[in-house]
Amino acid sequence: MTKSTIPPIRALVGAGLIVLFSLGSAVPLLVEQYKVHQHADPARNDQASFFEARMAGVRQALPLHGTIGFLTDVPESSGRSAVLYLTQYSLAPRVVADNTLLPLVIGNFFSSVPSPVLLEKMHLRPASDFGNGVVLYQRSGDR
């Protein structure tokens, strides 16, 4: 090889540093993923599986398609959106809307069910209680 085809040492050091820093920035992510997979339960005790099991009964009672309302006792500051999204995931292909004005409303409760007075004000009556805090409500007057 002639001297003109050999890359200068600075270019090699620069390229090596880029590769080193790129790999270095990925190490924390790789370590975190290793820890997650190391502690993963083969029985799939993740949140999605928990919600799918929790919604199994109501899933059988609902029409295959349509929009269902949503009611929960989880405040926004404690992850209400996550509960809504996991409920949506568990009941797909049905659409779960953050709305209590629909003919059918799924109640997903973790600490207590709403008071009968509140349900009356919302024009909701329990249609089916599936246990574990999962209740299907129907709007009063809707058939």
- Structural classification: alpha/beta
Distance between the ends: 86 Å
Computed Rg: 26 Å
Number of helices: 5
Shape label = rod-shaped
Name the helicity range: 40-55%
Profile the largest sheet: 5 strands, mixed
> In sequence order, what are the helices and strands, one letter per element?
HHHEHEEHEE
Mean pLDDT: 84
| Total discrete domains | 2
Structure description:
This protein is of the alpha/beta class and 143 residues long. It folds into 2 domains: 8-38; 47-139, no CATH class. It has 5 helices and 5 strands, in the order αααβαββαββ. It has helices spanning 9-38, 47-54, 56-61, 80-91, 116-121; strands at 67-72, 95-97, 104-108, 124-129, 134-139. A 5-stranded mixed sheet has the order 2-1-3-5-4. β4 (124-129) and β5 form a beta hairpin. α2 packs across α4 (80-91). It is rod-shaped. The termini are far apart.
Features:
143 residues, alpha/beta, 2 domains, 5-stranded mixed sheet, 5 strands, 43% helix, 18% strand
Question: What is the topology?
Answer:
Blueprint: H1 9-38, H2 47-54, H3 56-61, E1 67-72, H4 80-91, E2 95-97, E3 104-108, H5 116-121, E4 124-129, E5 134-139
Quick rundown:
With 143 residues, this protein is an alpha/beta fold.
